[in-house]
């Protein structure tokens, strides 16, 4: 592949720029792309994106198996009753915020059912979820595909997506519906059904908008429904968008654990990028889940935050502050002062399995940091008699690490769930869901 000759010139220009000139660049400005096409940014703290493994810096991760008072965690009971609640609270206080007591009520209605899809192998249902306050409400639409050949309750994969899903017969003349149906982010539905699994798809912005709070014409989401009379925005300690999306997913799970067509002990969550952050946090809180697949979740998702590589806490707090609680701002330029790191959120999912992916061309998300976070979550899984990744050096490219209860796959390619990710994940899932 022929390289753009100008990319080399730009990189050399960066090397020759005095630091004083770099420091004058506007905050969060895209400075340039390096020779491999990776984005370089300068945060308001002055930090410039690093992709050099020799410059990731030394760091010490917060301890998993020590209580806040320093006492050791020696068994799974200590973890479940003492350490796990401590870490959940640390995340709520400092990263994701607390779900307020005024969170909206929820109701459900199956608004349509269709038989005979995919050569009579599937049933499709539309579940309408209504989130309601005293005066307003908003709807989330969950499209559910179920295998029609099985007579027993089936496992279910719930996929929170950017575009959602609409029935094949949907009116695609509407611009928004057309845009969503053209975006190819869904899993291989026929293959999923052939595994004997159901597959449910929900668009994340049906739960909460993905935008700053003060943006004009902001749609109603669950956080707006939770405001008290006269309140114009969430309290500083209240939930950010990621916790709102996670909370909404758990309310959808509330429906499925009481659905006679679903095996309530075999429900899995799937999400990519910021939605990978969402499902790993949902899995940390919701103990009913059997499995979580977090794809390319990156910074403040599944890659180590203290490791200076790709996107950083500074970038997230500056550009996506609405996804977190106000306290995230305390850690800009002070990553080592965070009381948590992402090996801890993975460990909170124990004992249910977690599958994580990264891409060779997605260095912004720091796939090596994702791998190392999963390695460092292993001790908690071992408390439960479970197995970790089995290796600590890597990650190897295009090599499934799925022999244990923590799974990892480092695909050749970019920031996406690829076909190879799906096939590897389904092999991993079969160990637990079949």
Sum up the structure in keywords.
Rossmann fold; alpha/beta; nine-stranded mixed β-sheet; 2 domains; two-stranded antiparallel ribbon; 31% helix; 434 residues
Question: How would you summarize the topology of this molecule?
Answer:
Elements (H helix, E strand, L loop, with lengths): L4 H12 L2 H5 L6 E4 L5 E3 L34 H21 L8 E12 H4 L1 E11 L4 E11 L6 E8 L13 H8 L6 H6 L3 E6 L18 H4 L15 H16 L5 E11 L1 H12 L5 E5 L17 H7 L22 H6 L6 E6 L7 H17 L22 E6 L7 H15 L1
Parallel strand pairs: 6-7, 6-8, 8-9, 9-10, 10-11
Antiparallel strand pairs: 1-2, 3-4, 4-5, 5-7
Describe the protein.
- The protein is of the alpha/beta class and 434 residues long.
- It folds into two domains: 5-42, no CATH class; 95-433, 3-Layer(aba) Sandwich (Rossmann fold), CATH 3.40.50.1820.
- The chain is built from 13 helices and eleven strands.
- The strands form two sheets. A nine-stranded mixed beta sheet has the order 3-4-5-7-6-8-9-10-11, sandwiched between helices. A two-stranded antiparallel sheet has the order 1-2.
- α8 packs across α9.
- The two termini are 43 Å apart.
- Mean pLDDT is 90; it is low at 1-28.
